[in-house]
Amino acid sequence: MEIRQLKAFLAIAEAKTFTAGARRVNVTQAAISMQIRQLEDEVGLQLFTRTPRRVILTEAGEYLLERARKILREHDSALAEIAEVAGAEYGRLRIGSASGTFSMTQLPGILSSLLEKFPNAELTVSAGTSQALVEKMMHGGIDTAFVSLPVDNLNINTESLFSDEIVAIAHPKHPLAKEKYISAATLAGEKLILGERGGNTRRMIDEFFQAANVRPNITMELSRQEAVTRMVEIGLGVGMAGAKSVAKEVREGRLGSWLIEGAEIKWELGLARLRGGHFSPIGKEFVRLCKESFVERERELRAKR
Fold first, then answer.
1. d(CA 32, CA 26)
2. What's this model's pTM, rounded to 2 decimal places?
3. Fewer CB within a 10 Å sphere, N or C end of the chain?
4. Residue 21's CB: how many other CB atoms inside 10 A?
């Protein structure tokens, strides 16, 4: 039973098809099929049931799934611990971020400080939705990620860094701009510009409209909050954003905002990593720098109110 076979097995189990699984581990479909065939020959049982559209884990496959995840986590931890022998200035940290704002404003400074202590470190950063980044972490693609909380996965440990109340935003010349509150029904009838599906914030927004028994008129779904805010700022529709994140635009008269009647939608950003995984020196320093950065950000936001 080889590591590459277990990685192939896990990729297919999570992606549900051989084609998607092969893309995850960067091999051809023929190569991944051979790896699974060799693994099934070794265990003596079929691991997947093939159907026209997807594969389904057999009972043997289900037994192997959690074992494979544990083995691969231990494998990655062993490599990380061995790498530390080279010296404290070395290390590898693969970071994911579901927040475009954070990636543009705070992350560059954090990485610069991290490289002062680990000058020969190998740092990589990738973007994606919170859900996609958690999945990537589960199959070993990244070490840590900034995600919307909560994360519904017992294998993931999270620490909260920042929270914000979601408000509705509009062009300052909107007919209702001077109102303090907006109802769910009124908001649903606007031309709504929202973030893409897959993140916790969008899920909470969808659940809010569903609970209010109204169908929102969504005209745009964008991957970044900055894009949503900009579209609203030029009058293309009504959006939703964290009150703290748009405080400057509201203060300068570039946006209007409403509190949403009956809504308690909190956007919370946290740092996620595998529970029980190896917590390297570079990983610990990264967490420390992140916490320090967000304490400073909260201080700046309070000063501007």
1. 9
2. 0.66
3. C
4. 26
